[in-house]
Amino acid sequence: MMKFFDNLPPMDHLRSEKMSFVQLIIPVESAHRSITYLGELGMLQFKDLNDDKSPFQRTFVNQVKRCGEMARKLRFFSDQISKACITSAGRPAMQPDISLEELEVRLAEHEAELLEMNMNNEKLRQASNELLEFKLVLLKAGSFLVSSQNHAVPAERELDENIYSKERDRESLSLLDQETPPEMLNKAGLRFISGIICKSKALRFERMLFRTTRGNMFFNQAPAGEHVMDPVSGEMVEKIIFVVFFSGEQAKTKILKICEAFGANCYPVPEDTSKQRQMTREVSSRLSELEATLDAGIRHRNNALASIGSQLWKWTIMVRKEKAVYDTLNRLNFDVTKKCLVGEGWCPVFAKPQIQDALQRATIDSNSQVGIIFHVMNAIESPPTYFRTNRFTHAFQEIIDAYGVARYQEANPAVYSVITFPFLFAVMFGDWGHGICLLLGSFFLIVREKKFGSQKLGSFMEMAFGGRYVLLLMALFSIYCGLIYNEFFSVPFRIFGESAYKCRDTTCSDARTAGLVKYRDPYAFGVDPRWRGSRSELPFLNSLKMKMSILLGVSQMNLGIILSYFDAKFHGSSLDIRYQFIPQMIFLNSLFGYLSLLILIKWCTGSQADLYHVMIYMFLDPTGDLGENRLFWGQKPLQILLLLLAIVAVPWMLFPKPFILRKLNTERFQGRTYGILGTSEMDLDHEPDSARQRHDDFNFSEVFVHQMIHSIEFVLGAVSNTASYLRLWALSLAHSELSTVFYEKILLLAWGYDNPIIRIAGLTVFAFATAFILLMMETLSAFLHALRLHWVEFMSKFYHGDGYKFRPFSFASLADEEY
C-alpha cells in the first residue's frame, strides 16, 4: 500500500510558487531609478529593515512629506473640479512629461491662483448677495412706509397667514397687521428698522422682539419672493422681509442686538418714496454689474480647473509613484560609509532573471560606475505564498483566502474548488430554469466585462462582477443538476424520452393513492417525470437526495485526507503519513465509507434493507443476526473487521507520533544520528535554502496535547461532518418545494381565472417571488452553505491556512486607489 502511494506524483504543480530570499546592494545614485523599475515589474516584496524606527526617523522622510503635500493639492483640485461639475478629460499616458520639482512648483502656482480666485469669487458672491437682499428690502419694506392713500393694494396684508398659527389671540394679530403712515410716525416719535431674516427663524425672532420691548413695537413682514443664499451654509434658503417700528434709543439698541444674534441683516430704507426709487435703481445697476463680473470670474475659474483636470490623472499617478518609491526606499538600510542602500525581500524563483535585467537597466540609465549586487540568501522565516491566477481563477482563490492564506507550498484547495464549489451549490439549487436565469446574468457580466472593469461599481454589483465566473459555473452546474432532478421552475419535462410508468387507468385518478405501474425501461436521464404528483414522490426524492448527500460528503472528505498525504509527502514528513493519513483513512472509511458501499449495493440490488438498522447494530450487536438486512455474503465478518479497525485507528492517531518525536528530539541533542524521517514539527536541516522554518524548543506535553486535540477533533468531526453534508439534501428539498408552492399556489391559481387582470397580477407576483426569493435569497443561502462545506468539512482535513500573502512592490495597483 505504501509503495503505491510513494509512486504517486507529488502534485507540486498545484502549490504556490517557489520563493527566494534575496539581498540587493544598490549605489545611492541608482537607488531611485532601480526601485522605480522594480515597481514597474512588480515581482519583489521588500522587507522592512527599519521597523524599529518611526516614520519621522527614516532617511527619506522629507521626500515623503513633499509627495504627501503634492497629493493634498491634487485632492484639493479634484474636489474643486467635482464641485464645479466639470468633466475631466480621459486618462492620458501615465509617463510624466515634467520632473517632480517642476510639478511641485506648478502645483503650488495652481493652488495659489485657485485660492485667490475662490477668495475673490466668494467676496463678489457675498457682495452680490447683500445687494440682492438690499434690493428686496427696498421693494418690500417700502410698502410698509407709504401713506394710506398710496396703499390701495392690500396684497401685502395677506402675508401673515403663513406665519402665525390659528391659536394666537385676536389682539396680537390686529396689532401686528396695522400699517402706520410716516406722518403719524413722525408725530408720535416712532422709528423703524428694516431687514431680512431666514423664514425658519422668523417666529422665534418676533417673539424675542415682543418680549424684549414688552410689546412696545410694531412688526410687519412679507416673503422675499425668491430664494437667497445663506452666507453661513452657502445654500439657497427662503427668507422674509421685516420692518420693526419702535420708540426710543434703548429699544433700538436691543433690537439691533437681537437682529445680530438671529443672523438678520439690517438695511436702511428711506421714508421718502422718490429716494426709495432712486436707491432701488442704483442698487439694481450695481447688482447687474456685479453679477456680470461674477460670471466672468466663474468662467475664468472653470477654464483654469478644466486645464488642471486634463492633467490631473497623470500628475496623480506620478505623485503616487514617487511616494511609493520613497516609502520603499525607507525600508532599506542606508549605509553612509559605503554610499549604498541595502535591501532584502522575497521574489518568485521564475522572476529572478527579470529582476536582474531591471537592475541592470537601472545601472545603465543612471550612469552609475558601480553595478547593483543581487544575490540569494538563506532565510529563517517562512516565505510568503504566491499563486499566479487569471481572471477566471482569481475569484475562487479569493474564496479560499477569505478562510486563510495557504502556507508556503501547501496544497491549494482553490484548484479543486473550481469544480467542487459550484457543483455542491448546484446540488442544493438544482433547477435548470433557475440555472438559465443565473446563466443569463453571468453572461451579461462577462460580455460587459471591459465596461464594468473600468467603472466604480456599488458594493453589491462589485461583488457580483468579481464573482462572474463563479456565477457562470454555478449556473452551468445548476442546469446539469436541474436536468437530473427534472425540474424547470419545479415543472418536469419529458426531454429524454417517455416515462417508464403509467397510471392504472386512463383518468389517473388514483395516481396519488394507489401509485403508478412500471411498464418499460427506466427513464434515460435523471428523475422520471411521472414521479411528480405521485404518492411516493416525496419519500423517493428524500431517500435519493439524502443518500446522494452522504456519498458526496464521504467522497469530498476522502479527497481532503488524500491531499493531506500529498502535503506530507511533499514536505518529507513520513510521520504524518504513517500516523495521521493511514489511520484517518481507515477510521473514516471503516464507518462512513462502509455506509457509502451499502448505499451503492442497495441501489444496485434493489434490496429493502434498513441501513439505519445496519449501522446502529454494527455497534450495539456486531455479532447479531442481520436477518432481512443482509445485503451480501460475508457482511457480518466484514462489519466486525471494520469496527475493530476503526477502534484501533484512534490510538494509532493519538500515541505513536508524540513519542517518536520525543525520541528523535532526544537522539538529536545526544549527538546521535538518526534517519531522514521528518515531520512538520521538526527542524529539518535538509530543507533547501529559504524554505527552512523556525522551530521552538521541543515540548512533549504541548505536542501530546496538540495531537490529542487533533485526534479527538477528527473522530468527532467524522460523524458531525458527514451529518453536515445532509444540508445538501435539506436545501435541495426546500428549494424544490418552495418553487413548487410558487408555481402551484400563485401561477396556476391565477391562471385558473378567466380575468386577464388576475392572470397578469399572478404572473407578476410569481416573477417577483422567483426573482427575489428563489434567484437571490436561495442563491445566497446555497452559496453560504457550499462555502461552509468547503471551509470546514473539506479543508479542515489538510489545510492549515496560516500563511501570508506575497505583496510585491508594484505600480499596477496605484491606478485603482482613491484620490
Automatic annotation (TrEMBL):
<keyword id="KW-0175">Coiled coil</keyword>
<keyword id="KW-0472">Membrane</keyword>
<keyword id="KW-0812">Transmembrane</keyword>
<keyword id="KW-0406">Ion transport</keyword>
<keyword id="KW-1133">Transmembrane helix</keyword>
<dbReference type="InterPro" id="IPR002490">
    <property type="entry name" value="V-ATPase_116kDa_su"/>
</dbReference>
<dbReference type="GO" id="GO:0007035">
    <property type="term" value="P:vacuolar acidification"/>
</dbReference>
<feature type="coiled-coil region">
    <location>
        <begin position="98"/>
        <end position="127"/>
    </location>
</feature>
<feature type="transmembrane region" description="Helical">
    <location>
        <begin position="757"/>
        <end position="787"/>
    </location>
</feature>
<dbReference type="GO" id="GO:0046961">
    <property type="term" value="F:proton-transporting ATPase activity, rotational mechanism"/>
</dbReference>
<dbReference type="GO" id="GO:0000220">
    <property type="term" value="C:vacuolar proton-transporting V-type ATPase, V0 domain"/>
</dbReference>
<dbReference type="Pfam" id="PF01496">
    <property type="entry name" value="V_ATPase_I"/>
</dbReference>
<comment type="function">
    <text>Essential component of the vacuolar proton pump (V-ATPase), a multimeric enzyme that catalyzes the translocation of protons across the membranes. Required for assembly and activity of the V-ATPase.</text>
</comment>
<keyword id="KW-0813">Transport</keyword>
<protein>
    <recommendedName>
        <fullName>V-type proton ATPase subunit a</fullName>
    </recommendedName>
</protein>
<keyword id="KW-0375">Hydrogen ion transport</keyword>
<dbReference type="InterPro" id="IPR026028">
    <property type="entry name" value="V-type_ATPase_116kDa_su_euka"/>
</dbReference>
<feature type="transmembrane region" description="Helical">
    <location>
        <begin position="468"/>
        <end position="485"/>
    </location>
</feature>
<feature type="transmembrane region" description="Helical">
    <location>
        <begin position="423"/>
        <end position="447"/>
    </location>
</feature>
<feature type="transmembrane region" description="Helical">
    <location>
        <begin position="586"/>
        <end position="603"/>
    </location>
</feature>
<feature type="transmembrane region" description="Helical">
    <location>
        <begin position="548"/>
        <end position="566"/>
    </location>
</feature>
<comment type="similarity">
    <text>Belongs to the V-ATPase 116 kDa subunit family.</text>
</comment>
<feature type="transmembrane region" description="Helical">
    <location>
        <begin position="638"/>
        <end position="655"/>
    </location>
</feature>
<dbReference type="GO" id="GO:0051117">
    <property type="term" value="F:ATPase binding"/>
</dbReference>
